[in-house]
UniProtKB/TrEMBL annotation:
GO terms for biological process: thiamine biosynthetic process. This is Phosphomethylpyrimidine kinase. Residues 268-433 form the Thiamine-phosphate synthase ThiN domain. It comes from Halalkalicoccus jeotgali (strain DSM 18796 / CECT 7217 / JCM 14584 / KCTC 4019 / B3). InterPro entries: Aldolase_II/adducin_N_sf, HMP/HMP-P_kinase_dom, PM/HMP-P_kinase-1, Ribokinase-like, ThiN.
Length: 444
């Protein structure tokens, strides 16, 4: 169980609304104490009304008097009076405390009175972890982070104010990858994530803080809670929701819905396999075997893709899967599909097929874009890294204006030529594969 002490966001992407969605997505019952009411949407904040401190205090009382709260997370506190009230209440609380020093909204609208900034030191002194971005860290510590070393310095200053730990969020740092720096008395750790090219980041700070709080409330250690929360938040940012007329909203429930889609995804892969077996696709089975891969809607890794264990191979009477469908069963095709999804997130299914001149001619029947990548252009450092070729090849093939339906890998010495068909749904993958198979029969 966790408590969020923060302002509301009528647009639903940040504030108490984001906190509750995130905590519940982690399986933690969420309670709340509202500090302010804002009129805002995806374009910005239009109005803000701070509640009287007595009303805020009463809400905190009501929750702590009745619930066993494992962690408290703070967000928008708006005024010095509210900051002081919350600091006093937290001083008497013995659970985990996450302080998200909300000062400015993603839209640029200010959410904290300038005179309230000085009151934050007492609040930081109560924190299990404080989670400022670069701009907030500059206000709180006087250090303006430009890289991980600067962030570490700012984190050390926050720990010096009494916080047990400080997580300096790296989204605003001018680095190629996002570098989030966790600082404690014992040292520091840098968490690196690929930077997601999106403007729909409204509420990302609230989401990260409440994810950490939820994990701490479940009893996780701080290091693991931060790592898990960062993974959770990256997925929420990578798969935003196109809501409103502004940049949109991060997807607070992406991880939850992704877990819920595991069984249906595996069932769909099984259905595709059965259709392929019934159609006897011997002419498309490569020497390495054919495999069908399905990714969950918000998949981030191979473990979130379902495929045939042992692949599908030729038999005396047709083709058959060696074993059943399970998650993590594919390596090459799964990594290819995941890399393709960086450019076309709606792609969820793929199959690898034999490739030669006859198959190349049959691909014309698709009436859809076909691309390829050249292994001769593969950088040596990519070749040297086990399992990296498929990701590299997909990035070459999908960095195009229109999403291809098939990607050709002509192979090289010791590497079989393959064509991979991709699709957003099972029926489209089946249709494309059977179309190529039918056209191949006509040319042979």
């Amino acid at each position: 169980m966790a408590l969020t002490v923060a302002g509301s966001d009528s647009g639903g992407g940040a504030g108490v609304q984001a906190d509750i969605k995130t905590m519940e997505a982690h399986g933690v019952f969420a309670t709340s104490a509202l500090t302010a009411v804002t009129a805002q949407n995806t374009r910005g904040v239009e109005r803000s009304h701070v509640l009287p401190t007595a009303e805020i205090d009463a809400q905190i009382d009501a929750v702590l008097d009745d619930f066993e709260v494992g962690a408290i997370k703070t967000g928008m506190l708006a005024t010095g009076e509210v900051v002081e009230l919350v600091a006093d209440r937290l001083a008497a609380y013995d659970g985990s405390i996450v302080i998200d020093p909300v000062m400015v909204a993603t839209s640029g609208d200010r959410l904290l009175e300038p005179e309230a900034e000085a009151a934050y030191e007492a609040l930081i002194g109560e924190a299990t972890v404080v989670t400022p971005n670069a701009d907030e860290a500059a206000v709180l510590t006087g250090t303006d982070p430009e890289d991980a070393d600067d962030a570490r310095e700012a984190g050390e200053a926050l720990v010096g104010m009494g916080a047990e730990a400080a997580l300096l969020k790296g989204g605003h740092l001018p680095t190629e990858d996002v570098q989030d720096v966790l600082v404690t008395d014992a040292g520091s750790r840098v968490f690196e994530h690929a930077r997601v090219d999106t403007e729909a980041t409204h509420g990302s700070g609230c989401t990260l803080g409440s994810a950490i709080a939820a994990r701490l409330a479940r009893g996780e250690a701080l290091d693991g809670a931060v790592a898990g929360a960062l993974d959770f938040m990256e997925r929420a940012v990578r798969y935003p929701l196109a809501v409103g007329e502004g940049p949109g909203s991060i997807h607070h429930l992406a991880a939850l819905r992704n877990r819920a889609a595991r069984e249906p995804t595996a069932e769909e892969v099984q259905e595709i396999v059965e259709r392929f077996v019934a159609a006897d696709l011997r002419g498309l089975v490569p020497e390495v075997g054919l495999n069908v891969v399905g990714a969950t809607p918000y998949a981030e890794g191979v473990s979130e893709t379902a495929a045939v264990e042992g692949r599908i191979t030729k038999t005396m009477s047709g083709i058959a899967p060696n074993r059943g469908v399970r998650f993590g069963a594919s390596s090459h095709v799964a990594r290819f599909l995941l890399s393709a999804r960086e450019f076309a997130p709606d792609l969820r299914y793929a199959v690898n097929c034999r490739f030669d001149e006859d198959v190349e001619g049959a691909l014309d029947a698709l009436d859809a874009p076909v691309t390829e990548f050249d292994r001769a252009a593969e950088p040596e450092d990519v070749k040297a890294k086990e399992g990296s070729t498929m990701g590299w090849g997909a990035r070459q093939a999908f960095d195009v204006a229109e999403t291809p339906a098939a990607v050709i890998d002509r192979g090289e010495v010791g590497k079989e030529a393959i064509v991979k068909l991709v699709a957003p749904d099972p029926e489209t993958l089946i249709e494309r594969t059977l179309t190529v198979h039918g056209a191949l029969d006509e040319t042979v």
